[in-house]
């Protein structure tokens, strides 16, 4: 195993160094660079079912699953078959197709709060369109977002170099689950507040669940002050159930942003909601949003196939059960080794936090991660052919392709890893 690990490291090192000559940081999205965990990223040659296969031929059980996009697993045969049907008919036309209408109809039927919808190329585009619509509908500029949430790479939603301060002057950031602070900020800015955007379940600071009453309070506040409530369900859409987290929590948003699963593993996003808001979009209204590749027939065929399988097979209870089994057994193992950790999980998504002595907990929000321990844990698991999302703040996902054998192998690998980290 050790020689295999060295081989993996050597090949990945060479590929990564070569990639950095042409790609910024050697990657096309920062988290892929392994900066958060150290070392060199795994370069994938192919992926099938619950497995990814590296360029050096090693097989890994994958719990990243395209950061949640691949709920059926990699290269699902039925999805691939549907994609192939359209390859000879035209990869992209930039002209309306019947497929677009079918996907829109399928989503609207599954999510009652969506009356009309617009397909996009990504979750980022969906969020940008939703916020633009909210501002046009309310004739106001300010929005409230929550710290730790990621809503895409629009300038006014990021806090990084290169973003002018003026771009962020209308963005107010509030701690997640802090009802009192939300109420204070709304009261202070109510005359200029267009929208509140929230992940109903956070997936970008680890999996963080809403406190009881938190989402309900947001709905009440938005109703009271005529503010548009936007649910960013790029991760949670069709992840917990066949529909959205809104049905799961029995709350309706005014606008909903979707992505990941609705594209069946290909680039896709969407935003939709109340007719009176959505009809402000061009060509019916004057709010512009468009995209050459929006509604691409190859992507839409993959999305339709995925949603059809989810609707017919309804795998959600099974996914919830195997996720609970995995997480509860990791917790038991950690306890046996005296390792202090916190696992947040719901449905088929989970995250692991190793807690240091200075840890502060606030309703499942882990303020710090023992990053040194996490890095060691991560790389020991890689040696055992287990691939988690390469950051202590990213969510992990199970899919319909994960088997009982995969889970037992993962638990065995974690036990072996804990043995090494505790020097046993």
How would you classify the helix and strand content by structural class?
alpha/beta
CATH architecture of the largest domain: 3-Layer(aba) Sandwich
Anisotropy-based shape: globular
Q: What is the number of beta strands?
A: 16
Low-confidence region ranges: none
Computed CA radius of gyration, to the nearest angstrom? 22 Å
What is the highest CATH level, the class of the largest domain? Alpha Beta
Distance between the amino and carboxyl termini: 18 Å
Superfamily (CATH H level) name of the largest domain: Type I PLP-dependent aspartate aminotransferase-like (Major domain)
Strand neighbour order, sheet with most strands: 4-10-9-8-7-5-6
| Tally of DSSP helical segments | 14
**Which strand-content bin applies to the residues?**
15-25%
The total tally of domains equals 2
Encode the helix/strand succession as letters. HEEEHHHEHEHEHEHEHEEHHHEEEEHEEH
The average pLDDT value, as a whole number, equals 94
Helix content: 40-55%
Can you summarize the main beta sheet? Answer: 7 strands, mixed
CATH fold-level assignment of the largest domain? Aspartate Aminotransferase, domain 2
């Amino acid at each position: 195993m050790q020689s295999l690990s060295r081989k993996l490291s050597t090949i990945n090192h060479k590929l990564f160094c070569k990639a950095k000559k042409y790609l910024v940081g050697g990657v096309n999205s920062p988290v892929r660079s392994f900066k958060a965990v150290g070392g060199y990223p795994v370069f994938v040659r192919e992926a099938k079912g619950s497995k990814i296969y590296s360029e050096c031929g090693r097989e890994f059980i994958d719990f990243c699953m395209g950061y949640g996009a691949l709920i059926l697993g990699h290269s699902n045969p039925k999805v691939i078959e549907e994609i192939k049907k359209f390859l000879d008919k035209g990869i992209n036309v930039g002209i309306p197709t019947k497929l677009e209408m079918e996907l829109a109809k399928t989503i609207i039927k599954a999510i009652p709060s969506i009356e009309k919808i617009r397909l996009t190329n990504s979750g980022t585009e969906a969020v940008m369109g939703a916020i633009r619509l909210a501002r046009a509908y309310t004739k106001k500029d300010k929005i409230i977002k929550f710290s730790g949430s990621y809503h895409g790479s629009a300038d006014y939603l990021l806090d990084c170099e290169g973003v002018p301060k003026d771009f962020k002057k209308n963005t107010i950031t509030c701690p997640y689950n802090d009802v009192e602070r939300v109420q204070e900020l709304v009261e202070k800015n109510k005359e200029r507040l267009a929208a509140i955007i929230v992940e109903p379940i956070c997936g970008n600071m680890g999996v963080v669940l809403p406190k009881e009453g938190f989402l309900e309070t947001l709905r009440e506040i938005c109703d009271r002050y005529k503010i548009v409530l936007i649910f960013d369900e790029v991760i949670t859409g069709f992840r917990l159930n066949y529909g959205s987290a809104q049905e799961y929590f029995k709350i309706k948003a005014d606008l909903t942003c979707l992505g990941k699963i609705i594209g069946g593993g290909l680039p896709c996003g969407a935003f939709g909601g109340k007719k009176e808001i959505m009809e402000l979009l061009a060509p019916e209204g004057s709010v512009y949003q468009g995209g050459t590749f929006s509604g691409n027939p190859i992507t839409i065929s993959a999305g339709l196939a995925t949603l059809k399988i989810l609707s017919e097979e309804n795998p959600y209870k099974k996914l919830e059960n195997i996720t609970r089994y995995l997480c509860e057994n990791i917790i038991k193992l950690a306890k046996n080794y005296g390792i202090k950790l916190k696992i947040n999980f719901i449905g088929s998504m989970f995250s692991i936090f190793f807690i240091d002595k200075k840890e502060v907990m606030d309703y499942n929000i882990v303020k710090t991660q023992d990053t040194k321990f996490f890095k060691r844990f991560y790389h020991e698991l890689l040696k055992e052919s287990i691939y988690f999302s390469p950051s202590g703040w990213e969510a992990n996902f199970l899919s319909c392709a994960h088997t009982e054998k995969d889970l037992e192998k993962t638990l065995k690998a974690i036990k072996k890893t804990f043995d090494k980290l505790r020097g046993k």
